Amino acid sequence: MSSEHQSLSAKQMVSIENVDHFHFTIITAQWNHSVTSALEQGCIETLIKSGVKRDNIQILSVPGSWELISAASMVVEQQLTSAVICIGAVIKGGTPHFEYICQGVTDGLSRLCSTQSIPVIYGVLTLNNMEEAVERSGGRLGNKGDEAAVAALEMVNLRRSLATPNQGNG
Ligand code: RBF
User: Fold this and answer.
1) What is the CATH classification number for the domain harbouring 116?
2) Atom nearest to 88 CA in ligand 1
3) What is the total count of domains within the chain?
4) What is the residue with the minimal CA distance to atom 23 of ligand 1?
5) Domain around 75
6) Residue 140 placed within a domain
7) What residues does ligand 1 touch, defined as CB less than 6 Å away?
8) Candidates 101, 126, 137: which one to mutate for ligand 1, based on the most atoms within 8 Å of Cβ?
9) Contact 118/16 with Cβ under 8 angstroms?
10) Which residue, by CA, sits nearest to atom 9 of ligand 1?
11) Would you state the pLDDT for residue 170?
12) Considering only CA atoms, which residue is closest to atom 1 of ligand 1?
């Protein structure tokens, strides 16, 4: 899948009315920490540049990407946050674990998205090697943590607009 014309990172901030009313939860996997911490940082910076209060950003940590599923489920169950942003980096190794973890995490987060309405954002990089990871976590190809933040902002705004009664403009 080409990423041409699909990158959100050029935005790096989103203009949303009353954005300070929203609360965000970032869940970061600790596996490949140098990559995930850079993604987390990019995500926080984009949220703050867009007007989110630092106090309204909760940051949680889990051991690996696999645990993003259960942690995100717990957070969603609490119904206290406007969006959950899941951050992880799965890097191909010498065993078939890569395929199982990527598929499992993707399926788990996808199920969560389709069974409840708090936006759950997929900020999990699936990578062939560390070079690809570096390029996407603040390198040549931007920071996918920024893009996860932009997606979260757009989704909380969409959810609010759907919940707001029509004010006579169509
Ligand atoms: N977690 C990641 O977030 N990224 C990885 O690249 C990654 N590779 C793994 C490779 C193997 C062989 C195993 C056993 C686990 C790996 N995990 C990885 C950790 C996984 O997401 C989870 O934390 C553990 O399996 C414990 O449930």
Assistant:
1) 3.40.50.960
2) 3
3) 1
4) 64
5) 21-161
6) yes
7) 29, 31-32, 63-67, 88-91, 93, 95, 97, 101
8) 101
9) no
10) 97
11) 44
12) 64
Ligand 1 mean position, distance from CA 94 (Å) = 13
* pLDDT greater than 50 at residue 168: no
Q: Indicate the pairing of strand 137-139 with strand 142-143.
A: antiparallel
Mean pLDDT of all residues in 25-31: 98
State the Cα–Cα distance between residues 47 and 82, nearest whole angstrom: 13
Active-site residue flag, 21: no
What is the number of the ligand 1 atom nearest to the C-alpha of 64? Answer: 23
3-state secondary structure of 91: strand
Query: Residue 121 domain-assigned?
Result: yes
- Is residue 8 in some structural domain? no
- Closest atom of ligand 1 relative to the 91 alpha carbon: 6
- pLDDT tens for 73-104 read 999 999 999 999 999 999 999 899 999 999 99
User: Which residue's CA is minimally distant from atom 6 of ligand 1?
Assistant: 90
Task: Between 68 and 164, name the one with better pLDDT.
Answer: 68
- Give 145's contacts (C-beta < 8 A, 6+ positions apart): 38, 39, 40, 41, 42, 43, 44, 46, 87, 123, 137
Residue of higher predicted confidence among 95 and 29: 29
Model pTM score: 0.93
Task: Report DSSP state, residue 85.
Answer: E
pLDDT level of residue 5 (50, 70, 90 thresholds): very low
